[in-house]
Design a protein that fits this description.
heterodimer; A: 107 residues; globular; B: mainly alpha; 74% helix; 0% strand
Chain lengths: 107, 272
């Protein structure tokens, strides 16, 4: 029984590893994104975890990525981007556009 | 002050334009003023509630609760707009013909006012809750005083409302004999646009595949953030870099509602 299960999992493992989404952490602190340049693999879906360390909300927005999402203060949110062709995609924090700027670099 | 004025304007604009379309589409229907005002007020009260619950909503579904919430709100609005248009194509055209003009097409149109009350409320709810969060952050951040933030916000709100009013005034200039068809088309496009938006949130939460991201890029011709781009975005769901699934949802909603309207207009043979 357990042997069959192990064999089954072993057979499944490579395909699981392949389909797992790349996960990238982006933090917001003092109305700035860190890192300001986010490198992601091209041509595959990417899970972006945005952690807002500020007490106030921020809106992650990107015309190039076609995404918008409010991240409440002191919390973490998930959004998926891509699959992207290689290139640069700018994003910004709509509530603090002066300082909150960044770029996703798909390569 | 200018900062908060601009952001509140951007959030208010979309809701104001939607209200402008709905107000034009319900022209001549008795009691619409009351229903639309009620929708606006319900939306404002709802915004405060949603803003207060944002953190809890955000944490649902492994951090994608906001997308689910937005997609549900948009889905409901699409259903209401579809119902309005299908109902009106059965009864409204006849009403308009009998009354020789839209101005008198009163009475039974109020059946769909509840649907439009919901659309107005949901539009205000979506944009309003973001505005509340932004203003709250500005006030809590105490980067500037309370006065400038609030007066900037008020300025932005008034500017947004004026844009909605201007759109409404523009629609009223449409000649009466085309008015009914024109507003049907507007509502149809608005519903398709909202369906496309809904797909965007579902893709963002990874509930449906993106298919193509983007399906095309026309940002060099007409950017989303340009004034005409914003207007076309609200009116017809224009997006310079749409996701493939967004196009699918847009077309599906457009065709389904159109089919529903054609079905409702079919000649009724027996009985009634």
């Amino acid at each position: 029984m357990s042997f069959i299960r192990i064999a089954f999992l072993a057979a499944l493992a490579p395909s699981l590893a392949q389909s797992a989404d790349a996960e990238i952490l982006l933090t917001i602190k003092e109305h700035r994104f860190d890192p300001a340049e986010v490198r992601v693999p091209a041509n595959q879906k990417v899970k972006l975890l945005v952690q807002n360390l500020d007490a106030t909300a921020e809106e992650f927005e990107s015309h190039a990525l076609n995404r918008e999402k409010v991240i409440p203060g002191n919390s973490k949110a998930t959004l998926y981007i891509g699959p992207l062709s290689p290139g640069r995609y700018s994003f910004f924090g709509e509530f603090h556009e002066q300082t909150a700027k960044g770029t996703v670099i798909a390569e | 002050m200018l900062g908060s004025a601009i952001i509140v304007f951007r959030e208010a604009l979309e809701a104001a334009l939607i209200i402008g379309i709905i107000a034009a589409a319900t022209r001549g229907i008795a009691g619409r003023g009351r229903w639309l005002t009620a929708g606006l007020l319900a939306g404002i009260v709802g915004s405060l509630g949603v803003a207060a619950l944002t953190e809890r909503i955000a944490q649902l579904a492994e951090g994608t609760g906001q997308e689910l919430f937005n997609a549900s709100v948009l889905g409901m609005a699409v259903a209401m707009l579809a119902w309005h248009n299908i109902w009106m194509s059965r009864n409204g055209a006849q009403m308009a013909r009998e009354a020789k003009g839209v101005g008198l097409a009163v009475r039974s149109g109020d059946k769909t006012l509840f649907a439009l009350f919901l659309v107005v409320g949901l539009a205000v709810l979506r944009e309003g809750s973001e505005t509340v969060l932004f203003l709250y952050g500005m006030l809590a951040g105490s980067e500037s005083g309370v006065g400038p933030v609030l007066s900037g916000g008020a300025l932005g709100l008034v500017a947004g409302a004026l844009a909605g009013l201007a759109l409404y005034a523009g629609f009223l200039r449409i000649p009466p004999k085309w008015f009914f068809s024109a507003t049907s088309v507007l509502i149809l496009l608005l519903a398709a646009a909202m369906a496309g938006q809904m797909a965007r949130f579902l893709v963002q939460a990874d509930l449906v595949p993106s298919l193509l991201s983007p399906a095309w890029d026309s940002s060099a011709v007409l950017a989303n953030e340009s004034p005409f781009g914003v207007l076309l975005h609200v009116l017809a769901g224009y997006d310079a870099r749409p996701i493939g699934m967004q196009v699918v949802f847009y077309l599906a909603a457009f065709l389904l509602i159109l089919a529903g309207m054609a079905w409702a207009r079919r000649p009724i043979s027996r009985n009634l």
